[in-house]
Amino acid sequence: MVRVRAGVVPVLFLLVACLSFQQLCASDDTVFYDSFDETFEGRWTVSTKDDYQGVWTHSKSEGHEDYGLLVSEKAKKYAIVKELEKPVSLKDGTVVLQFETRLQNGLECGGAYLKYLRPQEAGWEPKIFDNESPYSIMFGPDKCGLTNKVHFILKHKNPKSGEYVEHHLTTPPSVPSDKLSHVYTAILKPDNELQILVDGEEKRKANFLSADDFMPPLIPTKTIPDPEDKKPEDWDERAKIPDPNAVKPEDWDEDAPLEIVDEEAEKPEGWLDDEPEEIDDPEATKPEDWDDEEDGEFEAPKIENPKCVTAPGCGEWKRPMKRNPAYKGKWHAPLIDNPNYKGIWKPQEIPNPSYFEADQPDFEPVAAVGIEIWTMQDGILFDNILITKDEKVAETYRETTWKPKFEVEKEKQKDEEDVQGSEGFLSSFQKKVFDLLYTVADIPFLSAYKSKIIDLIEKAEQQPNLTVGIIVSIAVIIFTVFIKLLFGGKKPARVEKKTTGTADASSSEEKEEEKEKEGTSAEDEKETAAAPRRRTVRREN
């Protein structure tokens, strides 16, 4: 029987754990990692500069127990930085930059990128970290207006000029438009290759020394246009010129109009010359609160003349215009080849004083990780910021920290979209039903009940769950009126409306009698007759 000393078992367990979760033992490869399981306070430094008023909070990702660094306020500038234990070189082998961000409220205008800063000797301090603090790389999503991209910017020193130049990755990936957690990865390789991954999928591959992959290119052009060179005064860049020998034809009339009256047109049969296109609304009534002295004389609003609906037209008929066949416009001499044409002038090329050659970029070391953004949205959550020298370590973090959250969020989003889809179909169906009911309310034999039907429709629009019951109520009203008409019941009284909004005495008596039979009070009918109508207010100065 083999005996195992007590201290060996924990060691074996630790070794197994390290093999299953590689980053725990990858201290040599993992340069920096922050999961934000613990608060950032005391570990990260918030900029004290006056411009940066945004408040950072240690908050959970929505729907998870996982914590992150949260942008908590809208329309603010934010700046926070974390110094590394020691600067990391970007020249020695592979370096992987990776972090997660979740745009919990979307992103209309703002950034969610990280800056990988140079050592403080370059001229910055954590307490006054701002947009001028010198960085080596800026990486991450940015979206505002026409800008929608995952930035990768290398700030590189030109060895000839000594100037630091921002080199932007061309054709960068776009930012995912949802509100899910996403992980962004930049892999810098010793063969000058750059890979940009979004959610572990390669979206862009580039070469740091390629003139096509960065703008401006890392390696300047050998020659540049001479800034001192000037175009000669007699240099003619016109390829074509007007023919100096051309003469305007005698029959060319420059004053002929573009359009003329069509003398062959005839007035359509049935045209109503004496009918105006609009008439006063015969149903309009002067509101009870109308004050002639303050509001001026009441004038009914205009409506389309119903007689003009079926007629080809109303009012004075005029012949239409047509294109003038004699129109030629202003005469111009035809163009001919310019005998003095010398081409488009360009300054001569001279050697570029900033040109240099390099086998690889002269990366500046990274001594800190900072977030310096200006955003119109809140709810931006940063998490699992990683710098490592091993691609597999970065992949392990993606699989163990990001992917489980993403799968849960994606499933929840799908369920919400399914619910919204069904609700959208129901809403569209209800709208069609309401439109049909409004048409039904305009049927002439239902005129006495129109206000009541419209009230029911409006109630259904405000409370969609009552739609079925209200449809039944309207159907009962229609059925009742139809039975009365069919079997000799008294027809609803026609209400004659005047501009003063009053009816004659006999009409009022008929309405009162009809309302008693229908179980409706006279006061209800008055409220219906006084329903608000469109009015035109015209004040006399």
Automatic annotation (TrEMBL):
**Where is the sequence biased in composition, kind Basic and acidic residues?**
225-241
Q: List membrane-spanning regions.
A: 466-487
Per the record, membrane topology reads: Single-pass type I membrane protein
* Biased composition, class Basic residues, residue ranges: 532-541
Superkingdom as given in the UniProt entry: Eukaryota
Pfam families, alphabetized: Calreticulin
Q: Major location, coarse class?
A: endoplasmic reticulum
A molecular function (GO) held by this record is: calcium ion binding
User: Which residue ranges have biased composition labelled Acidic residues?
Assistant: 251-282
- The entry's keywords: Calcium, Chaperone, Disulfide bond, Endoplasmic reticulum, Glycoprotein, Lectin, Membrane, Metal-binding, Repeat, Signal, Transmembrane, Transmembrane helix
S-S bonds: 109-144
Task: Please give a single GO biological process term from the UniProt record.
Answer: ERAD pathway
User: Which PROSITE patterns does the UniProt entry name for this protein?
Assistant: CALRETICULIN_1 (PS00803), CALRETICULIN_2 (PS00804), CALRETICULIN_REPEAT (PS00805), PROKAR_LIPOPROTEIN (PS51257)
Q: What does the UniProt entry say about where the protein is found?
A: Endoplasmic reticulum membrane
User: Which stretches of sequence are listed as region Disordered?
Assistant: 216-296, 495-541
Q: Name one GO cellular component term.
A: endoplasmic reticulum membrane
Signal peptide location: 1-26
Q: What does this protein do?
A: Calcium-binding protein that interacts with newly synthesized monoglucosylated glycoproteins in the endoplasmic reticulum. It may act in assisting protein assembly and/or in the retention within the ER of unassembled protein subunits. It seems to play a major role in the quality control apparatus of the ER by the retention of incorrectly folded proteins.
Which family, according to the similarity comment?
Answer: Belongs to the calreticulin family.
UniProt name for this protein: Calnexin homolog
Source species, please?
A: Prunus armeniaca
